[in-house]
Specification:
This protein is mainly α. The chain is built from 13 helices and no strands.
């Protein structure tokens, strides 16, 4: 009898091999489209890395936005448990995005400069999946959608998300519904404008943190929101540092100042009162 090598695995009898005209893994995921959507503008080896990292990041950002939209619906229907589940998923997605910068960092400045000029004005600042996620989390700025005017479908979608209540706006409404005295102008504000910290909101969170057993759902929700803040800031910092490592203080391809512009984002908080109460506890 011929001995089967230890590293050989027989094809099991039940595995499907006759797949003509049937749904396959490749057809279900449209892999012919996904895996053939890379079109380098140069013959430089590292441009493929650059393209795939950014394409994969866009998919993760799309999923993060999908999950935040679900969290908003869950909270609107008082389904806190499901909201906790999808918010926890968003944190892990952001962690995954942060890890991807380490892979991109294997590309040296010399490697990148060989094809950077071919990108023209194309820039990650034009990522509408990222912009949508920021809007959903509450970082609103009407001017940010100006770069999407060339694409009417994207522009209209972002404008719609801009004026809708963010995840944090919905959370504040839930606090009010449960009896916390939230200033009325925070509940019915212009949702298309930036959120500003408020004493009544801070007082509500402080009461929750001082009696977590009584307000456990909101206590747990607050920590889930801080998880997102933490993960998003880690992603922002790693993004900034990766850019600094590869291009130094050159201007961004999209026209920004580059690293100085990215550093400003690190000072932006989605849920400012949740950080401020740490000092008062």
């Amino acid at each position: 009898m011929t001995k089967t090598p230890g590293n050989y695995r027989e094809l099991e009898e039940g595995i499907h091999t006759e797949l003509a005209d049937r749904l396959t893994y490749g057809k279900y995921l449209h892999l012919a489209d996904v895996l053939n959507a890379q079109y380098p503008l140069s013959d430089q080896h590292d441009e493929m890395l650059f393209i795939i990292i950014h394409q994969a990041s866009e998919l993760w950002l799309k999923l993060a936005g999908h999950e935040v939209e679900a969290a908003i619906r869950n909270l609107e229907h008082d389904d806190f448990r499901q909201a906790f589940k999808v918010i926890a998923r968003v944190k892990l997605i952001l962690n995954q995005l942060t890890h991807s910068w380490s892979i991109l960092s294997t590309m040296t400045p010399v490697d990148y400069l060989k094809f950077r000029d071919k990108l023209g004005p194309a820039s990650g600042f034009q990522s509408y999946a990222y912009r949508k996620l920021e809007f959903l989390l509450g970082n609103k700025n009407k001017r940010l959608i100006d770069v999407h005017r060339h694409d009417s479908d994207v522009y209209e979608e972002l404008r719609d998300v801009l004026v809708r209540p963010s995840l944090y706006d919905v959370v504040l409404r839930k606090l009010s519904d449960r009896g916390f005295d939230i200033d009325a102008h925070k509940l019915e504000r212009d949702f298309g404008g930036p959120y500003e910290a408020n004493d009544s909101v801070q007082a509500a969170w402080l009461a929750i943190y001082r009696d977590p057993d009584r307000y456990f759902e909101f206590y747990e929700l607050a920590e889930k929101l801080v998880d997102i803040e933490d993960a998003f800031q880690s992603w922002r910092f790693k993004h900034m540092y990766t850019v600094q490592r590869i291009i130094g203080h050159r201007k961004g391809t999209g026209g920004s100042s580059g690293v100085p512009f990215l550093k400003k984002a690190i000072d932006t908080s989605f849920f400012p009162e949740l950080l401020a109460i740490r000092t008062e506890l």
